[in-house]
Amino acid sequence: MAETQDRKFDVIQRPPKIYLDTNHLINIADVRKGKKLPPGQSEGCYRRLDDCIRSYCGLIFNPIATMDWVGGKASTQSISEIAAVVDSANLKYVALDADFFVYTREILDQCRKQNPSIHVPDLPPILQNVSDNSTILSPLHIIMNHVSEYLEKSLTEAIEEQGGLPNEIPVFTVVEWVNEIFKQRLQNPKNYQSRTDSFIKRFNYDIEHKDEYFRNPNHHRLEWFKKILKVDKILKAFNPKINVDNILEKIDIKGCPAIDLLWKFHEIRMKNGNLLRDENDVDDYMFIPIVPYADVMLIETKFKGTIVQADNSLKSKVFSKVSDALNALENQGFTW
C-alpha cells in the first residue's frame, strides 16, 4: 500500500475529496478497536480505507449527518468513536448547513451568471477546508445579517438584542461537535423529532400529490425556491427592484447539480409512491447536496441505486462496496 501511495503522490494533482456514510465510519472505528466486522465486510479493505483517510485523502464532514449518529441507541462513547475517525483525517472539509446552503448557493450563482449586475451575498465555498483554520464562515449567519426578513420577526429581534451573529464561528473538533448535538437531543428530544416530522410531512405531501406536481413541476420548483430556500428574500434584500419570478424562472437547473439531483431523486420516490417513514429516510436526503462536490462517496446500497438511477454518470464515484471505492482512489487517483 505504501508503494502504491508514493507512486500516486508523483502524479496526483490534488487530494481526492471523499465522503463516508455512518455505517462505513462505524466499521472503520470497529476495525481500530479490533472488533469483528459484520459478515461480508473485509477488515483488510477498511484498513486500507483508513490509511487513505489518515494519509492523502480529504474527508468531507457533513454536520447534518451527525443527526444519524446520535439516533437510536447511541451513547457518548459510540458517537465519539465515529467522530474520532473524521477528526483523524489528514485533510478535512466541512459542508456547513448543506441542507439549505448548497442549494441556495447554486441558485444565486446561476442568477449572477444569468445577469452579472445582480447582487448576491458574499458566501463561502460549499466545502470549507478546516484542517488548519481556527474559524469558519457561517453561510446562515451571513445571510441572516443581510436579510432582515429571512427569519421570523421575533427571532430576528431576539438575535439583534444579543448583538447579532458573527459571520465567523469557531472550528470545533468533530468529537466536540457531535457530543454537543447529542447533549441537545437528550435535553430537547421533541425539537429533534420535530425536525424529522416536519421534513417527512413536507416531502410526503409531494408524494401524495404527485399527479398535481407532475402537471406543472416548474411551478412547484419555483415555490420551493421561495418558500423553503427563501431565495426571493435574499435577492430582494440585495436588489430591491428585482423581478424575482422573472429571474428564477430562467434558472438553468443543469448548472445546479445538487438541485438537479435532489429533484430527480425525489421524483423517483414520487413515481414509486415511496413515502418517507422514519429518520433513516430523512437522512438519505441529507447526503444529496454533497454528491456533486465529492470525488468518491461510500453509501448504502439502496441509496446508491436511487442516486445512480437519477444520474447514471455518478456511478463512477458513488459506491456501496469498499473495494470499489478503493479501486477508484488507488487506481484512478491521478485523475483528480
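(ticket continues) Second input and output from the same batch:
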Amino acid sequence: MELTAEQQRELDEFYWETDISTHELQEHFGLSKAVHFFASPLPTTATCPNCGSQLVYRSRTARSLDEKACDNCGHKDSSIYLCHCEHCESIKAEERRRSEEACRLQEIEAFKTRQQETSSPEYVSWALSKLSRREKIFLKAFLEVVQESGYPTWQTICDRAKVVSHKSYTDKLTNLGLLHHYPDGGIVANPAISPAMVEVKNVRGISESLRFEVFQRDNHTCQYCGRKAPEVKLEVDHLLPVSKGGTDEFDNLVTSCRECNSGKLAKIIKAFTGGYTKEEWREHIRRKRAEALQERRAQLDGVMQYWAECRGTKRISAYDANFIYNFIERYDPAWIKAAIYISPQRSA
C-alpha cells in the first residue's frame, strides 16, 4: 500500500517522536508489513565517510543501538566488519595487510632464532645422527641440487635421491632443524651443513625384513637369469656395487641367485637377457626402476583419492597422508590400494 503525504508525515511523527508501539501503529495505518518499512529514515548530524551524505537511523532499534547508515552508498557506521562499502573495505584491507606484515615479521624472527639455535657443528652432528640412511640420501641430494642449480626443483631433488615425494622427508628434516621453512615460502638448508658432512655409509647392513621386501617385489625371481626359489638359493645384490658407492637402499637392491651374484653364470645371464652382460642388465634394471619411480609418482594423487573414498571423506588428514607418502616409497600403488581396501573390512 502507499501512504498519502499527510499519512506519511503522521506516521513519521508517531514512530520517531512517541512511544506508541509499532503493533498499534501498524493496525492504525493498516500496514501490511512492519512499520519501519514505511517510516522515513531519521537524519542524524553525522556524515558518511565514504560519500559525504548525511547518515540516518533506519529504525527505532537502530537508533537505540546507535547504528547509523548511509542511504546513498550503503555504508554502516556501527562496525566496519558489518559494512562492505568501499571505505570500510579499504580500512579492512589495510588492517589485513598490517596483520599479515606483523605475522611475517614474527615468522622471520622465529626463522632467524631457529637458525641460530641449530647452526652449531655440535647440533648438526646430533641431528644427522637421528637420520635413517634414506633420509640422509635425500638430504644430500637436496644440498647437492641446490648447490649445483640456479633453479632447483623438487622433482630434480627426488630424482637424485630416487624417492617418489619430498614430503615425508622434509617434515622430519625441518623438525630437526636441518632444513628450514623460509617465511616467504620455500625451504632452505641449515647454513651450517654442506653435502660433504652428510655421510652415507655403504656397509652391508641389509635386514631380514628388507631382504624379504626385495624378494617379494621381485616375485622371488633372480632378475638376471629368471630362475626362482626353491630351484636356486636367492640372495640380494647391489645394482650399483658397494665398491662404486652403491648403498643398501631398497631401489639399489635386486634379487639374484647365488650363482649370478657371484658372476659364475655369464652365459645363462646372456641367454635370459637377450645378449646383455650382467653389467648391461644392471643398467637396464636401473632404467626400469627409474620408470617405475615416475609411475608411482604419477599415481600418488590417485592413491590419495582412493584412500579418501574408502574412508568416506573428501580430504585425508595430514596423519594419513604421511602414511601414504611412506608406503609409496617402497610399494606398488596397486598393493597400497589393495591394503586400503582390506583395512576397513578387517576393522568392521
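Agent notes: Residues 239 and 252 are 5 Å apart (CA to CA). The beta strands are 42-47, 54-57, 179-181, 187-189, 234-238, 253-257. Closing as not reproducible unless the customer responds.
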